[in-house]
């Protein structure tokens, strides 16, 4: 019977959800969800000095916004300390670990001497094979008894087989002298106890995998499938940092990128399915596989992100897009909209969503629907409202008062009026845009009039004509 797939995301709660962490979470989520498996979340909060409840909340909030739902409760690594210590003692009992009484001064002296003699500075404890009868009554750590000869092979689904000579691996500490477990042990115990079958994480953990694999082997546990994914670089090929722009998921949310677009873009960042750039969640779940992940670092490209996000906004269901837009206004602390403005926004959605790459761009196009009278034209559109244009708007209003408020009738009326004025409709459009929206660049005049309705449209045209 095939094994159920279990993946996990295990961030440290020391800050926001980094864009690289979000992609790692996404890859784990896609791999599990596409195979009917489980996606688990563990907060690696063993570093008590740096772990904060606020950072944990930010990580959970970022994952919720991205739509990366996890199975079961969030696991706290710190809460499992007693279990981690239990495994260290079991390794000691099995003879795969030992008590080391060496002081920090003795370890430093060993390394200094090794450096002088130009040999490996990996500490080799004199207590590794010591007789328990010689043990002093003093503090000690518990170290893993790593093999000194041979090789450890990490069979990685992204990097291929990675071979590390065992003489390059130290007898790592499992339990500190105060009885607290180290992170490297905790990760293995947690992954085993949580039933994790696939460890998909950044390739900065590749060296850790060799040491962690020794713990799996010593305990006789199944080794998970390893998949170490390359890090994300900035456009200049250097590790992604603040100088490249936003790093935290919450910053992208605040800038108004849609979550679906972020998922699509992050999935393509280091993974590919042929030449497909734009795809749905359902397609991503179906297509995502470890074999599609490249070995080299991916470069973050804001233009590609915007392009993908624009396609997702355009392809969105109108009602769902309106819901997301209202959530964006709320999370960015903008005033709530009246029912009337929400209704207008919903009615305008079919033409607003075309060619908008972010929510702020969409809202800028929607300014006509969200503004109250009197409409204040901006500097550019105000130029279209000279005395002659106002006179034309004044003459136009009675023609519109008797027109049926349908697109065909409005087009016929305005084109006929323009013809009677000895001009083309294009000449009317500038003053009408200024009157209806206070902007020079707006959706179609006809679209705006249909959304605003007869009374509001005529009132705005009348206001502009009088000034």
Automatic annotation (TrEMBL):
Q: Which residues form the Aminoacyl-tRNA synthetase class I anticodon-binding domain?
A: 338-464
- GO MF entry, a single one: zinc ion binding
Lineage top rank: taxon = Bacteria
The broad enzyme category this protein falls into is ligase
GO terms for cellular component = cytosol
Residues reported to bind ATP:
242
**InterPro entries found in the cross-reference section:** aa-tRNA-synth_I_cd-bd, aa-tRNA-synth_I_codon-bd_sub2, aa-tRNA-synth_I_CS, aa_tRNA-synth_I_cd-bd_sf, Glu-tRNA-ligase_bac/mito, Glu/Gln-tRNA-synth, Glu/Gln-tRNA-synth_Ib_cat-dom, GluQ/Sye
CDD domains in the record: GluRS_core
Main localization of the protein described in the UniProt heading: cytoplasm
Motif span ('KMSKS' region)?
Answer: 239-243
| Matching SUPFAM superfamilies | An anticodon-binding domain of class I aminoacyl-tRNA synthetases, Nucleotidylyl transferase
Q: Which Pfam families match?
A: Anticodon_2, tRNA-synt_1c
Entry keyword set: Aminoacyl-tRNA synthetase, ATP-binding, Cytoplasm, Ligase, Nucleotide-binding, Protein biosynthesis
Q: Name the chemical reaction catalysed here.
A: tRNA(Glu) + L-glutamate + ATP = L-glutamyl-tRNA(Glu) + AMP + diphosphate
E.C. code: 6.1.1.17
Q: Which GO terms describe its biological process?
A: glutamyl-tRNA aminoacylation
Motif 'HIGH' region per UniProt: ranges: 11-21
Q: Where does it localize?
A: Cytoplasm
* Domain called Glutamyl/glutaminyl-tRNA synthetase class Ib catalytic: residue spans: 5-306
| Protein purpose | Catalyzes the attachment of glutamate to tRNA(Glu) in a two-step reaction: glutamate is first activated by ATP to form Glu-AMP and then transferred to the acceptor end of tRNA(Glu).
Q: What interactions and quaternary structure are annotated? A: Monomer.
Q: What is stated as this protein's family in its record?
A: Belongs to the class-I aminoacyl-tRNA synthetase family. Glutamate--tRNA ligase type 1 subfamily.
What name appears for this protein in its UniProt entry? Glutamate--tRNA ligase
| Source species of the chain | Rhodalgimonas zhirmunskyi
The UniProt gene name for this protein comes to gltX
């Amino acid at each position: 019977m095939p094994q159920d797939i279990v993946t996990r995301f295990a961030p440290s709660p020391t800050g926001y959800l980094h864009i690289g962490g979000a992609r790692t979470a996404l890859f784990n989520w896609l791999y599990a969800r596409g195979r009917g498996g489980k996606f688990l979340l563990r907060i690696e909060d063993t570093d008590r000095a740096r772990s904060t409840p606020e950072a944990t909340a930010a990580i959970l909030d970022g994952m919720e916004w991205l739509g990366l739902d996890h199975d079961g409760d969030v696991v706290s690594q710190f809460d499992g300390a007693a279990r981690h210590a239990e495994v260290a003692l079991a390794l000691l009992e099995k003879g795969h670990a030992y008590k080391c009484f060496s002081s920090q001064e003795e370890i430093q002296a060993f390394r200094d001497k090794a450096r002088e003699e130009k040999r490996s500075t990996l500490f080799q404890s004199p207590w590794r094979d010591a007789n328990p009868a010689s043990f002093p009554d003093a503090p000690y750590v518990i170290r893993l008894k790593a093999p000194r000869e041979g090789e450890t092979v990490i069979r990685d689904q992204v990097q291929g087989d990675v071979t590390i000579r065992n003489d390059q691996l130290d007898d790592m500490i499992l339990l500190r002298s105060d009885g607290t477990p180290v992170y490297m042990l905790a990760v293995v115990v947690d992954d085993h106890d949580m039933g994790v079958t696939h460890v998909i994480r950044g390739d900065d953990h590749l060296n850790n995998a060799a040491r962690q694999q020794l713990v799996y082997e010593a305990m006789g546990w199944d080794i998970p499938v390893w998949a170490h994914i390359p890090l994300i670089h900035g456009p200049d090929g250097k590790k992604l940092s603040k100088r490249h722009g936003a790093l935290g998921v919450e910053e992208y949310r605040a800038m108004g990128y849609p979550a679906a677009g972020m998922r699509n873009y992050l999935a393509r960042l280091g993974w590919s399915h042929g030449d497909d750039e734009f795809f749905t969640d359902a397609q991503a779940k179906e297509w995502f596989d470890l074999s599609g992940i490249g070995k080299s670092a991916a470069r973050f490209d804001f233009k590609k992100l915007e392009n993908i996000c624009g396609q997702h906004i355009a392809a969105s269901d109108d009602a769902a897009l309106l819901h997301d837009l209202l959530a964006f206004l709320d999370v960015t602390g903008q005033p709530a909209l009246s029912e009337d403005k929400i209704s207008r926004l919903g009615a305008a959605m079919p033409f607003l969503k075309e060619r908008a790459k972010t929510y702020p761009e969409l809202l800028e196009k929607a300014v006509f629907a969200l503004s109250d009278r009197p409409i204040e034209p901006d500097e550019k559109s105000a130029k279209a409202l000279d005395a002659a244009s106002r006179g034309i708007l004044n003459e136009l209003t009675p023609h519109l008062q008797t027109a049926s408020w349908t697109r065909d009738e409005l087009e016929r009326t305005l084109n006929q009026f323009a013809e009677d004025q000895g001009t083309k409709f294009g000449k009317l459009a500038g003053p009408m845009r200024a009157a209806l929206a206070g902007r020079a660049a707006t959706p179609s005049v006809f679209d705006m009039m249909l959304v605003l309705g007869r009374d509001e449209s005529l009132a705005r045209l009348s206001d502009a004509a009088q000034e």
